[in-house]
Amino acid sequence: MVNLICRTTNTLFSEVAGVYAATDEWQLATIGGAPVAYYEGSIDLGGLVREEKTFFPINVMVQGSQLLYITGAATGEVYTDVQIVSTNPLSDTDLLWAANYQLPGMNNGNTLGTLTGQDLQTIVFGQIRTWVVNSTVTTPTLVNQDNFGTNEGIASSKLFYYRILTAPAAGGTITAYPSAIVVSGGLFEEPELERLMRMKRNTRIGV
What we know:
Blueprint (H helix, E strand, L loop, with lengths): L1 E7 L2 E6 L2 E4 L4 E3 L6 E9 L1 H5 L3 E11 L3 E4 L6 E9 L5 H7 L12 H6 L6 E10 L8 E8 L9 E8 L7 E4 L2 E10 L3 H10 L6
Antiparallel strand pairs: 1-13, 2-3, 2-12, 4-5, 5-11, 6-13, 7-12, 8-9, 8-11, 9-10
C-alpha cells in the first residue's frame, strides 16, 4: 500500500474596499468579477514513470478541519469549498467554474470542456462542500457535500492538488484551516500498450 499525501495551509481570504487578498501561499484566480482563492500543491510521481509502474487509487480520505469561519456575510449567503486531485493543472477558468458547481471533467461536449481540456478521467478525486450562513450560530452550516472523480489509474509524472474557496462578502473574511487529502493505493505493472494509453488519458486533452 502506498499513501500519497496532499496538504494545504490555512488562509484568511478577505475583501476590503474592493480589494481581495488571501494569505499563506494561497493565490487568487479571476476572469472578471469576484475572484476565488485557491491553494495549489503537487506530488512528483516521476519515479513511477521511470519504473514503468501504474498507481491505482483504492481509497481517498479528506483530513483535518473542514470548518470555515465567515464574517461580514448576511444570513442565507452560500459559500463553496472545493478540493480536487488531478493529473492535469487546472486553469483559472477551471478554478472559477469549480467553485460555482461547474466541476472539471463534468462538462464534456460543451464550450467549457473544450476550452479547459479537462476530462473526467483526469480527475482522480474531487469534493465540493456547500455552506450557508446561519443567523443562530457563529459558524456557517454545512448543507451539502458531493464527491466526484474516477479513481482512474495514474501513469502521469505528477499529481496536482487544489483547494478552492468562493469570495467573501464586501468587507468580510473567510478563514479556512489546514487540511490534507490522503490517496491510498497500490503499484502495478501493466502491459506496455495499456500503460502508454493510460499516460495519454492522464494528460490534458482538447487544447
